[in-house]
Amino acid sequence: MNGLMKKYRESLAQTPEPILLSQCPKIKLDLRGLMQYAKDKGVKVADLTEKEKVRFIKQ
Fold it and tell me: Quick one: CA torsion of 10, 11, 12, 17, rounded to 10 degrees?
């Protein structure tokens, strides 16, 4: 086994198990509103601050 394969197997051993959708918290996001807000502001959604993004999360 070459060095790359050894590193790959080590990284697989350290990778956590997948998270089921049922284990994710229930959050409602106004994605349409968020995208429109970013468009109106002239930036990408990724460039918005966390405070701006949180405004569109409804629990």
Answer: 130
